Amino acid sequence: MREPTLLPDLTRRNMLQTVAGTLVTSGIADSDTEVTTTETTNTQQFGPELIEQNEEAGFNFPYFLYAPANGRNAPILVECVNSGYASDDMSVHIDAAERTISYGLSRTVSDELGVPFIVPVIKDPQSGEFRYIRTQSLDTETM
Description:
The protein is of the alpha+beta class. Helix content is 29%, strand content 15%. The chain is built from three helices and six strands, in the order ββαβββααβ. A four-stranded mixed beta sheet has the order 3-4-6-5. A two-stranded antiparallel sheet has the order 1-2. Helix 2 (90-103) packs across helix 3.
């Protein structure tokens, strides 16, 4: 059964995902890192683009990055990938992240707020040591 919609393409699930992403952004803004300006910049749109993992630089997973044209110097909106099912094939998770950053509700929020948007691609394994843990949930078992 389909969830009732509040507005076209806006489901309770999509709203909760957006709120969760916004809370992550708010947490960044409320951290010790000082955000001194929300000035609009005259930049071109960037991405969405897949940034490959680079363990030497501290990035253990690939991620998608998008920045709207005329964005603001503001915190980054983050939404974790949710591929919908466990798979050992990383391309499944990359495809889900690409859909999220290209067509998800958080992309609209990013455009409306003029803030950069990032979707980390975290594998949800089907086999191996972590097969019973939903790693994309970033719950206490994952952490």
